[in-house]
Design goal:
- By secondary structure, the protein is an alpha/beta fold.
- The chain has helices spanning 10-16, 38-51, 81-102, 123-134, 156-165, 179-185, 191-204, 222-234, 266-282, 299-305, 346-354, 368-383, 398-407, 428-433, 439-443; strands spanning 55-61, 63-64, 76-77, 106-115, 137-149, 169-175, 208-215, 239-244, 285-288, 292-295, 310-312, 315-317, 323-327, 332-335, 338-342, 360-365, 385-387, 411-413, 417-420.
- It has a nine-stranded mixed β-sheet with strand order 9-10-8-7-6-5-4-1-13, sandwiched between helices. The protein has a three-stranded antiparallel β-sheet with strand order 14-15-16, with helices on one face. A three-stranded antiparallel β-sheet has the order 17-19-18.
- Helix 3 (81-102) packs parallel to helix 4 (123-134), helix 5 (156-165) packs parallel to helix 7 and helix 8 (222-234) runs parallel beside helix 9.
- The chain starts with 9 loop residues before the first helix and ends in a 9-residue tail after the last helix.
- The relative contact order is 0.17.
- Bound molecules: iron/sulfur cluster.
- Residues 64, 67-68, 71, 73, 75, 115-117, 150, 173 line the site of iron/sulfur cluster.
């Protein structure tokens, strides 16, 4: 069992409760160039097709029934199924365009539908979306298919449809089960309902259930969050993600519906995360990287034990494929040493797709220096250590940059490696920032959320 560290010094929190990337990529999106466009992505797709390694697919389904106040996703709301049909029309065109460069019938080892709310699609739309993919790609027999779902929209028929299509892992957005918190975030869903959909998913045959929580929400207290965690534990999820709420009303105006005064301060947020770590590790969940927990037999925990854990735009993964191909508005791809992002706004994405072009609006091709720093950040985020030979060259003042972390007991420098301590795990984002060549120039723009 891992015990939460005792932090006596508010000074420590004041020093490290800053703004910084979550490092789901390196370089992070603000460092990418708008000069990178569809011809660049098309050539990366051709190189990927020739390389021939299995793909991971991410499909963005942006529509939701209503907007949650805390939402940080690229989401649209609708109650009109025909708008979802139109989106699927365009998605089909995008798949055609992508596979013209990539080649048709490429192997897929992993598929994830995220959003938005993928289960805002009805059964016919779910079957259509999957059919579009299946007719352009080859799903390997051992491919892992996962989908995000809003418990409030789940029906037994929908679960049966998803299972019949081959999905075996379901991620339910729970966030917090306290009624006061739910009222403050505009998302009301009772524990009884969550309990019921989890049971229905298991009855339908789903092998793995993920539950997503958020700490740092308005009106959340240690007492209320403790109750939520205990309720979640009774559902015996295979994985739990416990993300820190990113309150960025300047970039996400709908978050202004959240009262600033209701938000827990830095030390309260920190206490909530420590509470989650303590509760889940006490219940024999492995603490994965920064903010995930997994049962010992879950592939994520196995990957961590075997030193092959990976991190990308979807968070921690087992890195089934070598290339991640994102489809849909705002989707991000990581293929052949290249990052590319689709237009985030529906009209812009749609207009590119309908003109027969890829919808790429920005991207980045990794330099040798980027690759070395990317590998270092990945290892720290995933393995919590970095071997000496993995330290990127050219960071002249690394010892000086690490010195404050060493002095604060967050990092230990051994002869052969740098190791993150139990206390340092809470400050992983800050530690990784030491290796980030782009961050000093980006910070001023206020693009990042709080690191704690
Ligand atoms: S359901 Fe998810 S994606 Fe949709 S508005 Fe709520 S938080 Fe955002």
């Amino acid at each position: 069992m891992l015990t939460a560290p005792r932090v006596n010094s508010m000074e420590l929190l004041r020093r490290y409760d800053t703004e910084g990337p979550r490092y789901t990529s390196y370089p992070t999106v603000p460092a990418w160039s708008n000069a990178f466009g569809h011809p660049d992505f098309a050539s990366a797709l051709r190189a990927t097709g020739e390389a021939g390694a299995p793909l991971e697919l991410y499909v963005h389904c942006p529509y939701c029934a209503a907007k949650c106040f805390y939402c940080g996703c690229n989401a649209l709301t609708t109650s009109r199924p025909e708008l979802i049909d139109q989106y699927l029309d365009d998605l089909e065109t995008e798949i055609e365009t992508v596979t013209q460069s990539l080649g048709k019938g490429k192997d897929v080892i992993q598929l994830h539908w995220g959003g938005g709310t993928p289960n805002h699609l009805d059964e016919r739309q779910l079957q259509r979306a999957f059919g579009m993919l299946a007719s352009h790609f080859t799903f390997l027999p051992n491919a892992e298919l996962s989908v995000e779902a809003d418990p409030r929209l789940v029906s037994r028929e929908q679960l049966r449809t998803l299972y019949a299509l081959g999905f075996r892992r379901l991620s339910f957005g729970v966030q917090d089960l306290d009624p006061q918190v739910q009222e403050a975030i505009g998302r009301v869903q009772s524990f009884a309902m969550v309990q019921d959909v989890v049971a229905a998913a298991r009855e339908a045959g789903f092998e793995a259930i993920n539950l997503d929580l958020i700490y740092g929400l308005p009106r959340q207290t240690q007492e209320s969050f403790g109750r939520t965690i205990q309720q979640v534990l009774t559902l015996a999820p295979d994985r739990v993600a416990c993300f820190g709420y990113a309150h960025m009303p300047a970039q996400r105006p709908h978050q202004r519906l959240i009262e600033q005064d209701d938000l827990p301060d830095g030390s309260a947020r920190f206490a909530l995360l420590r509470q989650a770590v303590s509760a889940f590790t006490s219940a024999d969940y492995a603490w994965i990287g920064l903010d995930h927990f997994a049962r010992a037999d879950d592939p994520l925990a196995v990957a961590q034990r075997n030193g092959v854990l990976h991190r990308n735009f979807m968070g921690y993964t087992t890195r089934a494929g070598q290339h991640l191909l994102g489809l849909g508005m705002s989707a991000i791809s990581e293929i052949e040493g290249t990052f590319a992002q689709n237009a985030s706004a529906l009209p812009e994405w749609r207009s590119s797709i309908r003109s027969g072009r890829l919808a790429t609006v920005r991207g980045h091709t990794l330099s040798d220096d980027d690759r070395a720093r990317q590998a270092a950040i990945l290892r720290i985020m995933c393995d919590l250590e970095l071997r000496i030979e993995e330290i990127p060259r050219g960071i002249e003042d690394l010892d000086a940059r690490l010195a404050p972390f060493v002095a604060d007991g967050l990092v230990v420098q051994h002869v052969d490696r740098i190791e993150v301590t139990a206390l340092g795990r809470y400050f992983l984002r800050n530690i990784c920032a030491v290796f980030d060549a782009y961050l000093p120039a980006q910070r001023a723009a206020g693009r990042f959320s709080r690191t704690i």
